[in-house]
Amino acid sequence: MIGRSLATYFTLRFAVWILGMFTGIFLLVFLIDSIELLRSTGGRDDISVALVIAASALRVPALMEQVLPFAVLLGSIAAFVTLSRGSELMIVRAAGLSVWQFTLPALVFALGLGVATSTIYNPFATWARNLSGDILVGSRASVMTALLSGSATPSWTRQRTGDGNAVLHTEGVSDGGRTIQQPVFWVFGADGMLAERVEANVGQLEPGQWHLSDATVTKSTGVPEHHDSYFLPTALTAEQVAGGLGSPDSISFWQLPAAIAQARASSLPANRFSLQYQSLLVRPLLLASMVLIAATVSLGFARYGGGEKMILGGVVAGFVLYVVIEVARSLGSEGLVSPVLAAWAPSIVAILLGSTVLLFREDG
After folding, report:
1. Which residue, 172, 134, 148, 139, is CA-closest to 47?
2. CA dist 183 → 141, 157, 210, 291 (Å)
3. 14 and 114: one domain?
């Protein structure tokens, strides 16, 4: 059994490499994102450079949640390779420790990191991302708010409007479902015929109605009419808007169960929120699978040579796993497979494959 001092030493080595890799990628993403946002807002008087940089800094923590598994993979590979080059792994092998014993500290650290990022880091990143949208709402920067809002892709829903119905399309949702960006309403009368088409820059949800700013209304005559303010009745609440139009990424880990229950109570699809919740629950296993992948390609570095090809194979394996996870998420979000299966299956399969390869390579 590995001693406490040695386990602490290995844990610190892995922690330094993984957190260092995460920090380096964070700074790189922040730099790229800031430059892109500055380019997109060039020449606008209502958006200052400091505001864009602040919004980008608040947005990057949420983006880094997608990068975290790769930071663990690359950091673990670097840690294993440096330990091999320093002959430290050779010494612990000569002392009678198996590969599972000196890999255990890295696995425990990855599991702990996964729990911490799901329960602590995710709520902070979600709060920061929502705050970035609120900051730009205050600056009336509607285009940038859509980019930084809780909904990253266009969304559709149906609502009641007085005697008829309306189909709503929006480019983004922020402020907990109380603000929608670039909404388009197709309003149908009681007879089911199209009555008017309403486009607006920003929509604010008020009790029983939408307050649309800078709206263009096209009625059956086909002549567009511009309105600085336009009101449409609605029966939607902010929670229903966030549940039907918002992105699961805009809801923190601790709020997701309530969001799932709210969506189901409102007869709205809850697959996206269930999938996000299960993905956060399985994150510790996903990070542990990245450590196993790193071990399978890095531990042979000192024993068999050809380290560059083996490390490249590990990186490719990590990207393949990412693609599989994204495909599974797409199937789960559309309800084609269970969200539980879509979230847990790729990580479990990766752990089983990594363990099998490691057993075959190290134990024959």
Report:
1. 139
2. 15, 11, 10, 44
3. yes
Residue 41 has a pLDDT of 67
Q: Cβ neighbours of residue 280 under 8 Å, at least 6 residues apart?
A: 118, 122, 253, 256
pLDDT at 252 (0 to 100) = 86
pTM of the model: 0.77
Q: Is the pLDDT of residue 246 over 80?
A: no
Helix or strand holding residue 150 (H, E): none
Tens of pLDDT, residues 11-44: 999 999 999 999 999 999 999 988 887 887 665 6
Mean of per-residue pLDDT scores for the chain? 81
Do 273 and 135 share a structural domain? yes
Number of domains in the chain: 2
Shared domain for 135 and 158, answered yes or no, is: no
Asked if residue 249 belongs to a domain, the reply is: no
**312, part of any domain:** yes
Distance CA 63, CA 74 (A): 18
Whether residues 159 and 135 share a domain: the answer is no
Mark whether 111 and 12 lie in a shared domain.
yes
Q: Hey, what long-range contacts does 268-272 have (CB within 8 A, 24 or more apart)? A: 268/157, 268/240, 268/243, 268/244, 269/335, 270/243, 271/332, 271/333, 271/334, 271/335, 271/339, 272/247, 272/248, 272/333
Residue-wise pLDDT tens digits, 155-181: 667 666 666 778 888 877 766 677 888
Both structure tokens of 260: 């799932």
How far, CA to CA in Å, does 208 sit from each of 98, 204, 211, 214, 260? Answer: 66, 11, 10, 20, 23
